[in-house]
Each structure stands twice: as C-alpha cells, then as structure tokens.
TrEMBL record:
GO cellular component: chromatin; nucleus
Keyword Acyltransferase annotated: yes
UniProt organism field: Corchorus olitorius
Catalytic activities: L-lysyl-[protein] + acetyl-CoA = N(6)-acetyl-L-lysyl-[protein] + CoA + H(+)
Designated name of the protein: Histone acetyltransferase
Composition skew (Polar residues), residue ranges: 1-18
Locations listed in the record: Nucleus
Active site: 344
Length: 444
C-alpha cells in the first residue's frame, strides 16, 4: 500500500507533475479554442435545447466528455452531484472522475464544462474493474471492517467493495495547513462527521491534532508543548531524525496520522486499531522543532513477515529521496530483528516501482562485489529482503535461469552496470551507526 512521491510519476510510470495533463491531442472539441474560450457557434435549434434540457440533471454514473484545465475534453464518469445554491431545479454541479487519469484528479465541475452532446445514454452500474480485482489479505479485510464496511465472508464481495468505493468517492477536505505548508489533498479521508463540511483543516504539525479554524490552531499552538512526534528518537543524522511512535501508547497521535495520511493515499484502508502498529516518523529538524516529512507504519507482530504496512512522503517533501530512505530504513530494522521482511500487499504500482528500485540497487551492488557463487538464501540473509522478492527482482532483470531443477544467478558485469544505472540513485543513505534501537517487545 505504498504511495511514494506519487505526483512525480503517472500511473503508466512516466515521470510527470500530477498537475500536468497527459497529452491527448486527438480529443479537442471543435467548438472550443485552444485556450478554452468558446468559439462562435451557430445558434442552437429549439430541438437541441429541448433535448439537452431533458437530460438534466445528469444521473450519477453518466459518462460524458468534460473540459479540463488543459482546455481539452476528456471522458469522465459522474461520481456525485450537488445542487447549486440559489440555482434552478436542474442546476447542479458534478463531481467527476477522469477515466484516463488517476483518482487524485477527481473534482467538482460546472455544467458548462460538460459536453452534453457526448452523453452516453447507458448509465454504467458496474463496479470498477480495478476494485473487483483487488485481492485483499485477511488483515486488510479486518481494517476495512473497522471502517464500517460489512465483511461477512472470506472474500469481500462486490457489494462491500462498492460500498467502500461509495464511501470514499468524493474528496472532502481540499487543503490542509501543516507547519509552514498549505497542501492540496489528493483523496478522501474519513474524518469524523463534524468535519465533513470543512474544505480546509488546520493541523498542529507536532501532535497532529486538527482544527476547523486558523484561530483555533493559533490558540492550540500557544498551549501545545510538543516540538517533535511523541515517542522515542531512534535515529539522528545531521538534521534528519526518526521517531518511533507506539500506537498503543499514543493512540490519538496514531489516529490523527492515519487521517492525515489517507488524504494522500488512495487505497489505504483506515484503521482505528492503531494499537497493533508502530509508526516511524521521519523529521527534518531545526530550531523550531522536528517537522514531519513522511512516515511508514509497521505491525508489531506480522504473521506474513511484513516489515512495512503504509508509507508516505508528504507532498512538499517529495522528490528528495525520502521515500527511498524510508524503504531502506524498514529493512535496517528487519536486519536488527534478524528477520526477513516484505512490504504489505497490494503494493500500488508506484510503491512497487520504488521497491523494485531499492531491491535492484541493493542486490546488484552485492552481486557486483561478490566473487564466486551466491545463493538467494545468502542474499536474503545479507539484506533482510524476502527470498520471493529477490527471485522476482532478478527474474525481471533477466539475471536468473532455471537449470537442472534450480535457480542460478547469472551476473554478467556489463548487464549489472546497465541495470544499476537504470535503477537510479539510492538517495539519502541510512547511516546504520546512527540507529539506536531495540526491536519491539510486548510489555506485560
Ligand atoms: Zn499540538
């Protein structure tokens, strides 16, 4: 469920700012000029006017073309609608999902932006394919269960998934203030109902309490005596610190962090059961305090040897190598525990990309230096990377062959160099000598 530095990469993996439109040149409508201003058109016939009026208001589920911020028309699906204040009976605004784009670009649009001539008459009632294909682990089902979606069977049925989608469809909080940043949010987060009418929330950057009004935050900041996340500082190198927060000892902080994180993670399922998790909160420190840049969470006890549940770098701090740092850090903890680890599944495509990069760099560095044979088991012991992840990584790089009933690593030095170059730089290094930590033990 990783989502790391997501705005830099589109769903197909190409690098791009999330505000930039994918190039879609063929779909410009003839009656809109390139800058979006309407071009002079012949007057509408009475019949056309009547036909259009009969469609309104559009039903939820309608598919239609919508003029986007690039002044071009793109296919959308209507997710929700709401009445325009003081408008007529059929005056609605529409919350739309651009079917070509990531859900973080979902937004409210005005009727003028929709091309009614392109309305598809068949309303799509099917659950989105990607939802039905989601395979959930028992653990994730439990988490969804706690967000009040009924789960009665071993498999989440389509209706439950749909309910989950319904519940998470519309972005509620549009922006947040956190420390010195105002940040635009990407996804729905299930804040308590009393916050459902808020467009903006004000967070205390240290205890992560959130408020509806700026004055409330100012009052809070005069009283709040935290200058860093609660819990133990387990790593400090230069201006960078990592804090370990026990969800059981700091329940409210853990919950606040989950509400905040969900604003930037699509398929993260929010759990209130933060007791079972440790949160590793990465901070940039200065004389005003330790400012959170991102975090990952980890189950205290994982039957599936997960060493990371959720991972996030906050948008203002992305593209600085913090996501890679967090991944590397999770493996350093596993090494100290003497266990192998793997991130919880499903990984987002972007999460998988980051992990593939990390695995490639770590494994190929070893293969480059190593003389003689080395087995996957030995690689796993050295790196704390799970054997399956090593196998799939090396297979995807064509560095492994199946001979006489076993996998053989074939490491041609030139090929290794080429792959290492493609995997990019590792970013910020974790300096293990600065990590002061003992693995979690349940206190009786
Ligand atoms: Zn506070």
């Amino acid at each position: 469920m990783g989502s790391i530095d997501t705005p830099t990469i589109t769903e197909n993996g190409s690098t791009q700012s999330h505000a930039a439109a994918p190039a879609a040149d063929g779909d410009q409508k003839p009656h809109a000029s390139a800058n979006g201003a309407p071009v002079e058109m012949p007057p509408e016939s009475e019949a056309t006017k009547r036909r259009r009026a009969s469609m309104l208001p559009l039903e939820v589920g309608t598919r239609v073309m919508c003029r986007w911020r690039d002044a071009k028309y793109h296919p959308v699906k209507v997710i929700e609608r709401r009445k325009v204040p003081y408008g007529g009976a059929n005056d609605y605004e529409y919350y739309v999902h651009y079917t070509e784009f990531n859900r973080r670009l979902d937004e409210w649009v005005k009727l003028e932006q929709l091309d009614l001539d392109s309305v598809e008459t068949v309303v799509d009632e099917k659950v989105e394919d990607k939802v039905t294909s989601l395979k959930m682990t028992r653990h994730q089902k439990r988490k969804i269960d706690e967000t009040h979606v009924e789960v009665g069977h071993e498999e989440l049925d389509a209706a439950s998934l749909r309910e989950h989608e319904e519940f998470t469809k519309v972005k509620n909080i549009a922006t947040i203030e956190l420390g010195r940043y105002e940040i635009e949010t990407w996804y729905f987060s299930p804040f308590p109902p009393e916050y459902s009418d808020c467009l903006k929330l004000y967070f205390c950057e240290f205890c992560l309490n959130f408020m509806k009004r700026k004055e409330q935050l100012q009052r809070h900041m005069r009283k709040c005596d935290l200058k860093h996340p609660p819990g133990d500082e387990i790593y400090r190198s230069g201006t960078l610190s990592m804090f370990e927060v026990d969800g059981k000892k700091n329940k409210v902080y853990g919950q606040n962090l989950c509400y905040l994180a969900k604003l930037f993670l699509d398929h993260k399922t929010l759990y209130y059961d933060v007791d079972l998790f440790l949160f590793y909160v990465l901070c940039e420190c200065d004389d005003r305090g330790c400012h959170m840049v991102g975090y990952f969470s980890k189950e205290k006890h994982s039957e599936e040897s997960y060493n990371l549940a959720c991972i996030l770098t906050l948008p203002p701090y992305q593209r600085k190598g913090y996501g890679k740092f967090l991944i590397a850090f999770s493996y350093e903890l596993s090494k100290k525990e003497g266990k192998v680890g793997t991130p919880e599944r499903p990984l987002s495509d972007l999460g998988l990309l980051s992990y593939r990069g990390y695995w490639t760099r770590v494994l190929l560095d070893i293969l480059k230096k190593h003389k003689g044979n080395i087995s996957i088991k030995e690689l796993s012991d050295m790196t704390a990377i799970k054997a399956e992840d090593i196998l799939t990584t090396l297979q995807s790089l064509d560095l492994i062959q199946y001979r006489k009933g076993q996998h053989v690593i074939c490491a041609d030095p030139k090929l290794l160099d080429r792959h290492l170059k493609a995997a990019g730089r590792g970013g910020l290094e974790v300096d293990v000598s600065k990590l002061i930590w003992t693995p979690y033990k349940e206190q009786s």
